[in-house]
Amino acid sequence: MKPLIVINFKTYPESSGKKALLLARRIASVKSKKYDLALAPPLLELEHMCNTVNLKVFAQHVDAQTPGAHTGQITAQDVRKLGARGAILNHSERKLPFLMLERTVKECRKDKLITVVCAASLKEAKKVARLQPDYIAYEPPELIGGETSVTSAEPDIIAKTVRSVRRRSPHTKLLVGAGVQTREDVITALKLGASGVLLAHAVVKAKDPKKFLREMLK
Ligand code: G3P
Fold first, then answer.
1. Could you tell me if 124 and 139 are in contact, meaning their C-beta atoms sit under 8 angstroms apart?
2. Angle at the Cα of 74 (from 93 to 52), degrees rounded to 5?
């Protein structure tokens, strides 16, 4: 399986509204043979992106509800019907209580959504590994959005997290994120045993996202 690169659009001005689709088209034009790419746009752009861009689209979050009287909730079933292939859960900017996270992973599994459960520490990665998600994304919050990559700041913790997750949930792969912005960051992540990266601002805020990604993924 190819390493997975998940580009989280978050809610940056450069990756929201009409600009989300423009950015997605630029990313989709970077044909990578080495990596599997997935985009996580703002929810309001999700359906349109699923219908116009030939890349996996992930929800940035879903709620642990089944269809019913749940005002304002985003169900796994809904995002799956819109065309999403997966969901990021428990991102440090959208944390979930563990029991809610457990229910959400189960709902996503029922609707065949790939689950990417974020963990802010090695300790949390060990805990969420019990849910056996498809991926765990190790992202130390203090490095998110910054210029220091988790791969250069915490190589030993990444290697430990790879081993810990593998021991607790052999089928769960590890992604790493926070400050990832160069080809070396991606290569280092893979050398440390990760199965890909999660990144946001380096792509979203790049002067030329297409050129930036082409360089990162070559
Ligand atoms: O979901 C990935 C994101 O939290 C990483 O952010 O801007 O450090 O790449 P960034």
1. no
2. 90
Name the residue of 6, 8, 135, 143 whose CB sits within 8 Å of the most ligand 1 atoms, as the mutation to test its pocket: 8
* Predicted TM-score (pTM) of this structure: 0.96
Residues of the domain holding 75: 4-217
Provide the pLDDT for residue 197.
98
Task: Give the count of domains, the chain.
Answer: 1
**Look-up of token digits 């060990």:** 126
**Best probe residue, ligand 1, of 118, 144, 151, 154 (max atoms within 8 Å of C-beta):** 144
Q: Is 61 a catalytic residue?
A: no
Ligand 1: nearest atom to the Cα of 8: 1
pLDDT for 66 beyond 90: no
CATH number for the domain that contains residue 186: 3.20.20.70
